[in-house]
Amino acid sequence: MRQLTIAMVSALALAACAPETAEAEGATPEATAENEKLAEVLAADLRAEDTARDEYRNPAETLAFFQVEPDHTVIEYAPGGGWYTRILAPYVSDVGQYIAVGFAPEAAAPLGEEFVERVRQGGETFSANQSEAMGIPAEDLPFYFGNAIPEEVNGTVDRVLVFRMMHNLKRWDIADGEADAWFAALKPGGLLGVVQHRAKADAPDDYVDGNAGYLKEDEMIAFFEGKGFELVEKSEINANPNDTADYEKGVWTLPPSFAEGDVDREKYAEIGESDRMTLLFKKPE
Fold it and tell me: Does a structural domain hold residue 269?
């Protein structure tokens, strides 16, 4: 019953993202199948511990906005603990291709050698670990570091998705190189989807250098346009107007991190997770 309920909610969310036209009312069998497939993935037992964050991450609506389809080749950048991996890989693995890409370990040198080694090991074991967890062959879950994407991948990717990671790339001074790699990987007309903690428009410059986790939306748009991408659309899917985005300990003040510990914990819990921009860009055809 629980799985059915989640599947129904997910399907409704996907339907809500569809344009309200006569054509949408008579949805094609392919579109209906895609919605059903994503709803099935979102309701899978594999995600039992992940669903608590659906309220803030809105995966059904976000992936619909990014126009991700089951036959796509999709790069997930910096998959981390695999929250979105457990959605994307099952969704595209049958007829599409999932690819994980991470930042080069040495890029995280400011965080210390121990962290760098963790990044390296995480990349080296990603495919095997995710294969065991999801039952998808490891060869269908390739992982590449951003400075070592095979040349044959370039120009073949339908979607590159970057979730809440741009602040790190900015503070580590690697955003330019990573964005260039994403541009090269995409097909002409391919789409880049970005979700990022959003700073207030009048936030001081020293608060949006990446170290607080928040970045300005207009600066993100300008950055990607400067890398050759075209802005397709913006969405408020992942917005949270209750987030003041001005905390001494940055975005990690809010759940799930609660950087202040028990200090004002109830207040921060009531605010919820961060306000996030959701941006869709295109590589020109």
Answer: yes
Question: What pTM, to 2 d.p., does this model score?
Answer: 0.89
3-state secondary structure of 284: coil
Contact 46, 134 (CB under 8 A): yes
Of the candidates 275, 253, 278, which has an alpha carbon nearest to the alpha carbon of residue 264?
Answer: 253
DSSP 8-class letter at 263: T
Taking only the tens place, the pLDDT of each residue in 103-126 is 999 988 888 999 999 999 999 999
**Does a structural domain hold residue 17?**
no
229 in Cβ contact with 279 (< 8 Å): no
Q: Is 258 exposed, middle or buried (0-12, 13-18, 19+ CB in 10 A)?
A: middle
Tens-place pLDDT, residues 191-200: 999 999 999 9
Cα–Cα distance measured from residue 77 to residue 182, given in angstroms and rounded to the nearest whole number:
9
The maximal CA–CA distance of the chain, rounded, in angstroms, is: 57
Residue 130 lies in a domain: yes
The CATH number for 145's domain is: 3.40.50.150
Domain range for 206 is 57-282
> How many C-beta atoms lie closer than 10 Å to residue 174's C-beta?
18
Closest CA to 180 of 146, 213, 157, 209: 146
**Residues belonging to the chain:** 285
Rounded (10°) CA dihedral 15, 16, 17, 23: 60
User: Does 276 map to a domain?
Assistant: yes
Number of domains, the chain: 1
Beta-carbon count within 10 A of 80 CB: 15
Task: For 195-210, give one letter per residue: b (16+ CB within 10 A) or e.
Answer: bbbbbbeebeeebbeb
The C-alpha atoms of residue 16 and residue 9 are separated, in whole angstroms, by: 11
Strand-pair category, 143-145 with 97-102: parallel
